[in-house]
Amino acid sequence: MFARETYVQRREILKNTVKSGILIIPGNKETGMNYKDNWYPFRQDSTFLYYMGINLPNLYIVIDLDEDREILFGDDLTPEDMVWVGASEPLNTYAEKCGIAEVKAMSKLKETVRKAKQKGQRLHYLPPYRSKVTIEISELTGIPVAEVGATKSIEFIKAVIAQRSIKSEEEIIELHKAVNITANMHRHAIRRTKHGVSEKQIAGELQAIAIAGGGNISFPIIFTKNGQYLHNHATQAVVENGDIVLCDCGAETAMNYAGDMTRTFPVAERFTAIQREIYSIVLDAHESSSSVLKPGHKFKDAHILACNRIVEGLKGLGLMKGDTQEAVNAGASTLFFQCGLGHFMGLDVHDMENFGEQLVGYTDEIKKSTDFGLKSLRLGKALEAGNVLTVEPGIYFNPYLIDAWKAQGKYSDFVNYDKVEQFKDFGGMRIEEDFLITTTGKQLLGEPLAKTIEELEELKNS
Amino acid sequence: MFARETYVQRREILKNTVKSGILIIPGNKETGMNYKDNWYPFRQDSTFLYYMGINLPNLYIVIDLDEDREILFGDDLTPEDMVWVGASEPLNTYAEKCGIAEVKAMSKLKETVRKAKQKGQRLHYLPPYRSKVTIEISELTGIPVAEVGATKSIEFIKAVIAQRSIKSEEEIIELHKAVNITANMHRHAIRRTKHGVSEKQIAGELQAIAIAGGGNISFPIIFTKNGQYLHNHATQAVVENGDIVLCDCGAETAMNYAGDMTRTFPVAERFTAIQREIYSIVLDAHESSSSVLKPGHKFKDAHILACNRIVEGLKGLGLMKGDTQEAVNAGASTLFFQCGLGHFMGLDVHDMENFGEQLVGYTDEIKKSTDFGLKSLRLGKALEAGNVLTVEPGIYFNPYLIDAWKAQGKYSDFVNYDKVEQFKDFGGMRIEEDFLITTTGKQLLGEPLAKTIEELEELKNS
What we know:
The structure is a homodimer. The first copy, chain A, is built from 16 helices and 15 strands. Chain A is an alpha+beta fold. In chain A, a hairpin with a 4-residue loop joins strand 14 (433-437) and strand 15 (442-444). In chain A, helix 8 runs antiparallel to helix 9, helix 10 packs antiparallel against helix 11 (299-316) and helix 11 (299-316) crosses helix 12. The two termini of chain A are 39 Å apart. At the A-B interface, helix 3, helix 6, helix 9 and helix 14 of A face helix 3, helix 6, helix 9 and helix 14 of B. Chains A, B: One of its GO terms (cellular component) is cytosol.
């Protein structure tokens, strides 16, 4: 946990923003895999962590804005619990550590919410992403399960987004830590990937590094020779010389701050000539689009710049043709780059994605697009100092998409399908790094990791 | 997947047992950790796997017993899904692989259930252990969320338990595989655990072995120098010479069959004299209680035998006193052995625990006890050939329990608390192996793993 004062101040700002009603903040519970008590690794809710820092299951916080009361609801371990899990500090101690004055038994929660409702107080809650919480919110408030999502508090959501979007110094230290563990995972992947190993073999080793770092992986590891599929997880497939491997993985620290990086590299000792060509385009798109990041610059413009660089590069190889800007405006670049340039990162790897991308990454003026490609851009708005985000352009030769669009003659003014045909088994490449927006520009998070072709080949063969 | 005929036959038996109504069998969905789309590793429901073998999310099966129809509900990937996850075989192909004739879109499920209800057919479903499924069953059947658990079909549950309790030859092959990967995890743990490593470091490496094996861990890894707490997971604590480490872990195969073993060993090269003494008692309890396993023998009796051996051993060390059988009958052994001797194992590491331990491990004649200790014995009934189970006695010096019971004078006729005081920082020891009940006795699953003090020390220092 951070210092007590951190949590007190964060809640103070929150209370001054939302002003009236009660805030109901559920912590997460353990979640069963194949039966109730066979748990997935516990992951506390990020907003709960942000305001209270208590990394334990089965808690609720209620903040009464009208009476200025903060209450932690939960139950201390019984002697019998201690047979199974040992002792734990009492909840009073945890409440003290984050500056919360009152602790009550979980059995009192329903009554507290009921009384607030009776008094006509607004019940603010965030949109649940776990069904268990949906059911609980329904039971607490009397709102039917099917309507819980729709009755979330936009006011509360916006207040949380405003705070969590700007990282404090202590958060940035944690983020550097997360990215450094993440970079270690990549160093291991680049060095250990050899002809004949399975994707899952390496993916398991990467998870071990994340776990040894004190936390766990921040999202399911993408380690695949089929990087053309954007979220393709590791399988039992064996990688071979000639393949390129896309590794997109991240650690989260014991305090649950996330890292998220991608490297693409050959299984063999060297990139092939054509792999070098495509890689160089992705690297150029990465360098160009990250170089413009600074407060006030729209992330959507950085995305468009990356698209431009990709089209330019692919024109150079004869895969695309026509006017670059027109091709990007028309959406032709999405045949090769089907997703967005990046996203916020923090306590969640896609930070605050549970609140919805329009509210987190856009504004009333800059709405999220519904077009293929741009609709997967999670962040579009102007940047602010303190934002932390990823930059991750890529080129993906998806054979299904190529076949479908070729058959439709889609973007035939901009795409040389005959040439593209030759790349249908190429795979996909992505380069991803994490940045902090500073007052004047940007700062790379973590120690630099091999990124150029020369650096990657050197690391691979070291 | 197993051969088509396997699934057809399993469903045939099920249909002949339950006879009338419709069976609603939900597959599991992806589950978000900290937001909806940041998924935990997918784990299919075990009963769904048993009858259909399809390891994909977002499916339902409805079996109409009255009209003898089997329908798989689900949706094929869209071209846009293929951008993210690549291609997949159509559901028709999967249905064929498990011998199901009809495939319908998920949107048709509700209508199918509604019609059955209208016709007055009984709607059979198993007790959900995931909140998402609870909500879905409620939406499908009109039963309120809070009552879904209570309206489960006991008839359906009993039919499934009867089938899944007896493992077929092909299942036993998978179980051997799971236990062999599990034994490899233990070999690694025993050799790699050295003064100065953190619990999480080793736990991560063990998970990597499970993942490389094609599946994942079958339950959260227990790797701890505080083995006195029965389900204590790995922490960032560093282990040191003089500590003993309890490692309880298991792999599940790509087909989701589980292994589950425990070894306890010193961090240093050798057990200390007192560690040897306690270990020898646990080993004796393990050997004695597993030697009696055979069809017709009640597992509860094997548990009682283990308790007896533990009391005998502790009497030898002066920690207990009085008549052994009386001590066990009174429950005095539960100061040191607070849980049960073992449990069924199969597609779930605690096989079918979602159906409730009374139905799975007991009968109308042998009810599950509510006494401390015995109430944690998940299996009590007479064994049958084809059962697969664990045997895992242990001795746990839980300082909180010792203090509490000493203060109450509990079992003071049988416990020498003054002597026990000296063991309050000893920790805990457990030995666990997995067995198949054969027609004449039992068979160890997997290749034997170092278990005696000599074998463990030899492996450690090899």
